[in-house]
Amino acid sequence: MRAAVLVTPGRFEIEERPIPKPGPGEALIKVEHVGICGTDLHIFNGHYAADSLPMIPGHEFTGTVAAVAADVTGLHVGGKAVVDMNIGCGRCFWCRKNEILNCPDMRQMGITMDGAFADYIVVPARLVIPAPDHVPFDTLALTEPLACVVRAARKANVTFGQSAVVMGAGPIGNMHVQLLRTIGAAPIIVTDLSRARVQMALDCGADIGVSDPERLQHAVMDATGGRGADVVIESVGNTALYHMALRLMRKGGHLAAFGLTGPEEKLALPILETILRENSVKGSVAGMGQDMHDALTLLAHGRIRTEPFTRARFPLAEIQTAFETIPDRPEDLKTQIVLAA
Ligand SMILES: NC(=O)c1ccc[n+]([C@@H]2O[C@H](COP(=O)([O-])OP(=O)(O)OC[C@H]3O[C@@H](n4cnc5c(N)ncnc54)[C@H](O)[C@@H]3O)[C@@H](O)[C@H]2O)c1
Ligand SMILES: [Zn+2]
Ligand SMILES: [Zn+2]
After folding, report:
1. 28 CA to middle of ligand 3, Å?
2. For the residues of 150-186, what is the DSSP string, one character each?
């Protein structure tokens, strides 16, 4: 099989590798579409998981079940599937609480071990989620990023009728907007420095778009009767925006801490005000288990506009170009590697 190996930051090499064999409890997946996400770019640029290299990245993947080990039941060979990328030990305190990302032995496909920029990948069969045959692979490849967004909305208890601010209209911010729309949040106010991205978010279901940061506070207060929003989701990873978010929440409102900052960044939370206003800050990282199922259900039933995420496609042989040109293609919210291309 072909595998795109990131041999060193900034350089992929396409290698021939033997097709791996599923061991006990495992399934072999024939990979069809793999999305490139911000984390992949960080790995490509050497800013993340550098000690995993050389490695085959790729964690936003879908394909078909090509084979299963003799002890695996319940998976249909030939059927479409998505895969939960987070591998917990399954036995520790955190795994039993379904907080797999806190498992001390957690591994992540394409981040701490080989991933899916290859014709095949072997995965734990328990992490394979069968997908409906009618859903195209380009849509299925969006399950993992949407699962991150689903988890954040669940953790922040977003419900219909709530006002929401989404800071950042990048690929993930756009998905936050779309999920909020599906939930029935209203109004949805989106902000990004890029007018084009604000417009894309408006096209995907936001009610109010703000590209001038000076206008944001006024726009939010204006749209919420001067109270502030029920929920503010930071989806940029900018410390100044986190502080701004504290000022955009209503009394009793929630801040969904989602955009990743550097490890040393601090949020100066006014303690007394937080108590008296009964505000909360809720962190959320990745998506797994139920989040994957729910994301797949929403995609399968057409609740998410996928077109801005599926139009940019590259064959595996051009993965280097695909990564290098992402900054020049802001109108493509996602780039997918298509194995069959
Ligand atoms: N917590 C999780 O589970 C999780 C999962 C996936 C991604 N993330 C994080 O979410 C964030 C968003 O992901 P993405 O892929 O959309 O990122 P991205 O970098 O592609 O997009 C960020 C957007 O923010 C905009 N922006 C930058 N500075 C801004 C500012 N000061 N004000 C308003 N807008 C600004 C940019 O124009 C861009 O459109 C990232 O920090 C990413 O690491 C978190
Ligand atoms: Zn990702
Ligand atoms: Zn564990």
Report:
1. 23
2. HHHHHHTT--TT--EEEE--SHHHHHHHHHHHHHT-S
